[in-house]
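Exam review. A common question shows you a sequence with its structure tokens and asks you to describe the fold in words. Practice with the pair below. Do the first one on your own.
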Amino acid sequence: MILSNQVKFYLLIAGFAVALQACSSTTSNENKALITLAETKSEFPFTTREPQTYQGEFVVTDGTSERRWFIARNGEKRRFDVFRGDQPFVGEIQAGERILVNYEKKIFAAPPAGETSGLNIDDLAKSLFSGKDYREFDDLGRDGELRKYKIRKDEITKDDIVIYVNEALGMIVKQEFVSQGDPSKPPVKIVYEIRDLKLEPDDRVFDIPDGFRKVAWSEYRQYLDK
């Protein structure tokens, strides 16, 4: 479970993942299965795999509003924070024991096995970094320190999708989705990016914040829907 006003936005994020997968999947015999750069050279000039070690702030904007998350990973260690405004509100830390954190109440608890947090700790990152199969795209040149690629439209991909790659890291760091939708209305533009990306996370981010109080799960769970 998770805050009710966050649920719709997670569905939006899931939609981004579907959109990227749609532009990445095809039945064409001419396309080749993607082998990521993490394994060997491929026809993609960038990797489509989530890094094993990194930290950064994921931001989604639609021109009128902005949502933010913090994600850190060091192998099996994970941290995922949901922001409300400029401050983290709730989070999940996996560093041996799985811990849920409520930053507003300054409490944390270890949920029982099988209890879900609804935070989708893996999905948000994968929807930015990953692709499934090789697809055609056009190189639009450089945009500052990044290189732009536009996914070619076909019978599956109807929306305009542009990805931005940090060439030094060989990683997707930004995506733009533009959908016309209702032709009587202006197109909708969603920008999804990672900011302040570091490939060597600070190991302290996987610690429980100082001054937070451990509570029983029965006490913690009463705040999940508020």
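Now try the second one, then compare your answer with the model answer below.
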Amino acid sequence: MTLIDPAFAGKVTRADLAFATAPDGRSYLARQYMPYPFHITRPFYLDRDLAAMATVYLQSAAGGAYRGDNLQLSVEVGQDALAHVTTQASTLVHAGRGGSTKLTQEITLGRDSFLEFLPDPLILMAGADCQVSSEIRLATGAKLLFSDSFLTHDPKGLGGAPKAFRSSLVLRTESGRPLLIDRLALGEVAMPSTRLGDLPCHASLVFVAPEADAALSAAVLSTLSQVEGLYAGVSALTAGPGLWVRLLARDGVALSTGLSRAWIGLRKAVTGAEPPRRAK
């Protein structure tokens, strides 16, 4: 059973990014199609430890996601390519007012590629009704760090909450064999009255790489446990070498700190060096 409504009637807007490797070894944008409201920066090369890695910032020209939006993003990372995809800032998901917003991400990793897909958290405004669907396929030797996160916000301070939030993440091998299936559904009643009411900021990270072992899991959990206002859990994937990280936070500062520390620790496991912070 899917948590994403297959009958969603919003107009589809599809964007496309593809990374490839140049003859000199540097990764570059081989293909891009960014219709409104999508926008991107040019690739930046910010990493000394991964000098060939292309960093691209996703941007929105619309001031957020609105009722009826059906926004789809395809990201392809070719063989041996290295890419870091993030956002310029968080994306606002505005009140649905009787409608909903759908966000879809389709990611494909080629052999021996490496992708860090780390957008800033969605901000679910009071009354927002949002569906997020992510489908990822990994070829042999591919490495992945993927995050999916949100926080809630009531600008009027009247105790309002998002109407609904549903997410679906499916991680597969190149042949289609599932490595991970994660689904989450929160309703208008659940969000303010359960534990999420005290901890309205949420994040999930999945890390797939040979370096993902018990020692790394313990190290990441130890680092995250030092962040005030953050509750974290780290577990191993059962279908292959990888880690699953879940974060609940008191506020956006704690969530951002936790996401940053997790990224630094997991990247360091791959390269032996800390990555430089991305300017936002």
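Model answer, second protein: The mean pLDDT is 92. The radius of gyration is 18 Å. Full marks require stating both points clearly.
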